[in-house]
Amino acid sequence: MRPSRTVFALASSCTKAASANSGLAARLSPFQASRTAPHRQIFSSSRSRVPLSVKIRNYTAQARHDSPILFRMLLIGTFAAVTALAFVSYDEYFHQAPKFADYPPEVEQMLRLALHYTYVRPDKDAALRKFHNAVKLAEEKRMDPFGKPFIGLRIRFAEMLETFGHVKEAVENLGMLAQECEDKIEPSSGSIEQDASNERRKRMVKTVINCKNHMAELYQGEYLQDTDKAKETLSEAITLLVKESQDPKTKGLSDKNGADMSHEEIASVLNHMSTLYSATGEYDNALQTRMLTLAPLRAACDGSRTCREGHLLSNIAHDMYGALQQPNATINGQPKTDASVAAAHEAILGWLGAAQDTIQPIPLQQWNDECALGTFKVYWTMGRVYIDMGDKTRATAAFSTLLRALKQLGPEALRSIGQDHLIADTEDFLRLTDPLNTEQKLDQEIQAAVKEATEEGFPTAIEEQEKYFHQQIAHGEELAGKGSNPMQAALCFYKGLKVYSDPTSLWDIYKSTVPGEVMKIVRIMLVQDKALRGKIEDADKLDEARAASRLHENRHAK
Q1: Count of C-beta atoms within a 10 Å radius of residue 45
Q2: Is the Cβ–Cβ distance between 223 and 167 less than 8 Å?
Q3: Are 107 and 141 within 8 A, CB to CB?
């Protein structure tokens, strides 16, 4: 039986429709096709049973295919965020939480906020308010006022005041804390061993010593600048430390004490005291305190060479030399004689040699500011001692070595450790130890300066000369007042003479107003400038004055 025409017609129409649909799909863009297929695959129906892992894999593949750069950035960002979260969690759990573990939750939260407004987002008023609230809550929770957490809270409060520049208030708070602890310290049992076993007592004694030590630092600082009060406060701390030590007269100060102070902490307090004595010229007291510091410092370092020990040894030699220079100095309780002074010089050189033997073996990678300061003080003191001994060759060698080290380090580094004056001071001592060579160098420098000024030329118009004169004199007075560059100051005064209408009267003014060191250089400039020398009435005396000045200096140097 043959199909009817109707069946053939229906089949033909279906074939055409299919062909039309395939043509439409071919005309779709690749982007549309790529997006359409996965969409149909994943969201084919609400009852899809595709596993979640497959869906995530499909999403990832689609994102990687559609936006490869953005996908990589997103991946890196996600990894960084997870790493940061892990780090913060680790720090919070292992570092931050133990610091606040002894506080009640309310006090802990308030203390965290106080520290946040002190260091993270500084806000003085907010920090002060949060600290007050933390102390108030601690009192309401009946925390032990002399327990370690409460004492730590009060010390942090003083640190906050210091951070915001309220140094006087910080000292007052530390003083109140020290006094309260001192009043509550139980009387000594008479046995260091029993006192050392009393943790509460040890903590309170140590708090008093540490508070007074820090109070002394604040008294000495740039805000209060009360050295006498600093020495008084620190002396009280050391007196308490000695009182709590076991037989300090024969055994010295050790870590076996009722203050729970380690060798390192004892050495730090004693070194602070000796530095205060040395800064105020009490070299005998400074020397005794440094000798006491040596044993605990070496014990803290386990006998190994350190920069701190080298610095301490150089300071001992420096204080010995300072004590020797005092007007009524005594040596071993007796007035000094030539023989005792010579013996003292040898002793100082011995301590300097010990300092060198301690510092030099330390690798340069391990050097710090104390190694540098110790080295500077060694050569500085050594040069001074050799000058007093009349050995100018060794003095010159010591100061030359020091000058090379200072210039190698540079002015900025010296300024950071408060020793930026050492280069100029060392150069001055080199002139003293080698006057003839220095005089020749000075002549050459002056000659070069005068030649440079002459080549630059001087104004000729009256108005320009007057303006130029006032500028040079003002600049010269400024430099002479600072004392940092006598050569440039003298050059300014010389230029003023060159343009002034009556140099003779100006020269007379110079003789009574210009500092001696600057005036000496101006005289040499006049000697080298024949044209200007002829304009001054007493110019014939300049050569004689210069020769007499040099002869006097050479005799004094010898």
Answers
A1: 6
A2: yes
A3: yes
For residues 277 and 285, the answer to whether their CB atoms sit within 8 Å is yes
Cα–Cα distance between 421 and 411 in angstroms, integer? 9
pTM: 0.61
CA of 399: how far to CAs of 32, 325, 396, 422, 433, in Å? 85, 20, 5, 11, 9
Please tell me the distance from the alpha carbon of residue 59 to that of residue 282, in angstroms, as a whole number: 80
Token pair 């510092």 is found at 359
Task: Find out whether 110 and 134 touch, Cβ atoms under 8 Å.
Answer: yes
Residue type present at position 435: P
Q: Distance between CA atoms of 177 and 543, rounded to whole angstroms?
A: 71
Residues 63, 57: Cα–Cα separation, whole Å: 10
Alpha helices by DSSP H, 457-539: 462-482, 486-499, 503-513, 516-528, 530-533
Length of the chain, in residues: 558
Can you give the three-state secondary structure of 341-361, one letter per residue? HHHHHHHHHHHHHHHHHHHCC
The separation between CA 284 and the C-alpha centre of its own chain, rounded to angstroms, equals 29
Integer angstrom CA distances of residue 300 from 296, 303, 553: 6, 8, 50
Within a 13 Å sphere around the CA of 193, how many CA atoms are in the beta-carbon half?
0
Token pair belonging to 469: 């004169």
- Mind giving me the DSSP string for 82-138? HHHHHHHHHHIIIIIHHHTTTS-HHHHHHHHHHHIIIIIS--HHHHHHHHHHHHHHH
Please check whether residue 263 is in contact with residue 300, taking contact to mean a CB–CB distance below 8 angstroms.
yes
User: For residue 153, which of 117, 108, 122 has the smallest C-alpha distance?
Assistant: 108
The 3-state DSSP class for residue 257 equals: strand
Phi, psi of 334 (to 5 degrees): -115, 150
pLDDT of residue 98: 54
Torsion, CA 405, CA 410, CA 412, CA 413, rounded to 10? -40
Q: Which two tokens stand for residue 354?
A: 């010990």
- Closest C-alpha among 235, 284, 285, 237 to residue 265: 237
Give the CA diameter of the chain.
Answer: 152
Tokens of 443: 């002549």
For the chain, the distance separating the N- and C-terminal CA atoms, rounded to the nearest angstrom, is 147
Give the pLDDT means over successive 10-residue stretches in the chain (558 positions).
Answer: 43 46 44 43 52 79 79 82 78 57 85 93 95 93 90 94 94 95 78 65 92 95 91 94 82 81 93 92 92 92 88 95 88 88 95 94 87 91 91 88 82 73 74 60 79 87 90 88 80 90 85 84 80 61 48 45
pLDDT of residue 435: 54
Q: Residue 229 has which token pair?
A: 């009060």
| Contact criterion met (CB below 8 Å) for 430 and 396 | yes
In this prediction, residue 438 carries a pLDDT of: 57
Question: Could you give the C-alpha distances from 222 to 97, 172, 203, in angstroms and in order?
Answer: 36, 17, 30
Alpha carbons 22 and 19: distance in angstroms, whole number: 5
